[in-house]
Amino acid sequence: MIDVSELQQRRAAFMASMVPGSIAIFPAAKEVIRSRDTHFPFRQDSDFFYLTGINEPDGLLILAPELEQTEILFVLPKDAHEEVWHGRRLGCLQAGHDSGIQVCYENSKVAEQLPQLIDGHSDLYIAFDQFPEFEAELQLMLRKLRAAPKRTKTAPERLHDPRAQLHQLRLIKGPAEQQLMRQAAEISMAGHRRALNFVRPGVFEYQVAAELEHEFVTRGAAGSAYASICGGGNNACILHYTANSDVLHDGDLILIDAGAEYQGYAGDITRTFPVNGKFTPAQREVYELVLAAQLAAMAELRPGSNIPRAQDACIDVLTEGLIKLGILTGEFKQHREALSCRQFYIHGLSHWLGLDVHDVGAYQQDGAPMPLVPGMVLTVEPGLYFASDDERVPPRYRGMGVRIEDDVLITEKGHENLTAGVPKSVEGIEALMAQAQRTRKSAKAQNREPQHAQ
Ligand code: GLY
Ligand code: MN
Ligand code: MN
């Protein structure tokens, strides 16, 4: 949990960036219907959560530096009947305590209170197009303010989107957030180790996903930070393969991209390994090339550097390696300039990681790449994809996709790999899987269920 004092600092930092005469409104997320009488699991709006720590639907945060009460929170009312059916609610007292916000009203008061709070402000911050239902209500309130008799009220003249400023704050993770991200990474790693222990020919991709997700939830995560990708063989060439419906075959690789969400923060790890525990020579060649590219990219991550610099290092290695494998033919210089490797490396190298898996924060500043500073967390995830019908590559490489992804915290001295605890060397993977096979064999001999190694 983030301390109340840190939540207060975040709100103060945002308020310090607001233009004079302004008020800001941050709506909470709403429940989303899945089908009749059932909802998707509730997920709080990340900005609202960042500023309040409150994990309930239908709230509203107001920040108004020029009012006597600068912070006002609206939350769901306590309601014995609703709580018996749907679960406990914080209510004003607890929500005020948990968020450190002094003034807290039931959300039934929004219609009456909000126009009074907005009145007199020249500028209003609201995330554009993010909360269409609320924006419609807000427009109505603004219209009424503008139409007040004898112009006794004033509606804001200018609307601003708060996200650029707020997301710049979210981009730098403080010590408490770094700790939560370490925990999200730990839980995500435990899931991947469990998968490495579990995978063998004949099991289904959805069973692998279930193993990962079991581990995440058992360890206190809310679940997955995004739909798990468990693609055997050619399925690994579908970047967002979430069907997870096929059986795993002896001789294929499996690509697993999965991460836990812990107290709002995401882990995001990809590992690729052989279904039978042993890389074929062709698989090993491709795998070691992607690994070398990932390590070259990571070596560039330190304060003052930037993501494009890491991408350049990655592309250098991939280009040279693809020529060595005979997948590209010709001169390095010509292929490097043409970015030929991008035919097979078809996605980005990195994204910010935090409350959202593709976290917020700009990638450019003043027309230049965003310089890395301590407290930023980002992924490093090169890949190569050779579909089974890809005639550009020699047959021995077809039908495999390899991606390796770790989560990296920028530190004063360089960086810390938060997800180093899942093996990614060929030797490390093969040793772990051989150990799992031995454990399964001896459990079978003794006619008992194998325990999952951690
Ligand atoms: N899991 C989504 C990604 O790696 O970006
Ligand atoms: Mn990622
Ligand atoms: Mn991923």
Jot down its keywords.
454 residues, alpha+beta, Creatine Amidinohydrolase, Chain A, domain 1, Creatine Amidinohydrolase, 2 domains, 6-stranded mixed beta sheet, 3-stranded antiparallel beta sheet, 21 strands, globular, binds glycine, binds manganese (II) ion
What this model shows, in words?
The chain is an alpha+beta fold and 454 residues long. The chain folds into two domains: 4-169, 3-Layer(aba) Sandwich (Creatine Amidinohydrolase, Chain A, domain 1); 172-440, Creatine Amidinohydrolase (Alpha-Beta Complex), CATH 3.90.230. Helix content is 37%, strand content 17%. The protein has helices at 4-16, 46-52, 80-86, 91-99, 110-118, 132-146, 163-171, 175-198, 205-218, 281-298, 307-324, 332-338, 426-445; strands spanning 22-27, 33-35, 38-39, 60-63, 71-75, 103-106, 123-125, 158-160, 223-224, 229-232, 253-258, 260-262, 265-266, 269-274, 364-365, 368-369, 377-380, 383-386, 400-403, 406-410, 415-417. Strands 6-5-4-1-7-8 form a six-stranded mixed β-sheet, sandwiched between helices. Strands 9-12-13 form a three-stranded antiparallel β-sheet. A three-stranded antiparallel β-sheet has the order 10-11-14. Strand 20 (406-410) and strand 21 form a beta hairpin. The model has no long low-confidence stretch (mean pLDDT 97). The structure holds glycine and manganese (II) ion (2 copies). The site of glycine (GLY) has 7 residues, from loops.
